[in-house]
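My current task is to audit a protein record that another person submitted. Please read both lines and tell me whether the tokens look consistent with the sequence. Do not assume that whoever made the record got everything right. I have pasted the whole thing underneath without changing anything:

===
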Amino acid sequence: MTNRVTQLFKINVPIIQAGMVWVSGWKLASAVSNAGALGLIGAGSMKPDLLREHIRKTASATPSPFGVNIPLLRGDIDDLIAVIQEEKVKIVFTAAGHPGRHVEKFKKFGGIVVHVVANIKQALKAQECGCDAIVAEGFEAGGHNGLDEITTMALVPQIVDAVTIPVIAAGGIADGRGMLAAFALGAEGVQIGTRFAATIESSAHEVYKQKIVEAGDGDTIITYRNILPVRAVKNPFMALVQKEETHKGMTKERMMELHAKGRERKGIFEGNWEEGELEMGQSSGLVHDIVSAKEIVDRIMKEFEETKRRFII
């Protein structure tokens, strides 16, 4: 398949593996890129030296393009960007902040910049400051979400209508049917997180992977809703947060006290069911096994083509 997304990244299929914290290390990123899609290293859980290590290992494990996902609100953002520049990573996905003051840093060495957005205003700002593409992420997505609570089905076509650069759909997509639906809405690629989190190459804990497989349609929950929405599977910790939000309200200070105690690491990387945040999207209900990243890419494209054929008259 050839379109603006595959041409931009020089990949075979328009599938991007999300750069998830504690999940998207060099093994997963290189496996996805070797399968013809675009693998991303998740820098959100890495210090600069560790990011450098994962970049070099990915480069050694695949001859294909790969990128780095970087949250712009990190206190050490300049150090992380310096590593990306020094290692000459040409594809950068940014999130959680305004990309404006950073875009030119990547453009100086021929970098491609993609920004994750949750509404039209953010999309227009990303286009205006020089981003090459946009990820339109709906509220179904796992982890941190937008305050507007716009779902993928409603968000993607509105952003497609608002911008001229390629739009990549994210949130709630785990198979070829979801990919075809996103394309029908005007997207030219899909970014997939939860489905790739439950793969052999994912660096997440086996308990976390198994919880994705076991999750049903109503097993995720949004907490910190009025401050920084986070979607994760229902567990004792998230129940505690929800109860406190419901009965006492939730200040930003209290949220930081709860969330900042390594909850993502505990849940995703250490497999702590009781005290961690096991972040995953609503698409977890579509995940039924733990297989290789290549098998996931192949499955998605096969199902995409099979589903498309059913609509050809």
Residues 96 and 154 are 21 Å apart (CA to CA). The two ends are 21 Å apart (CA to CA).
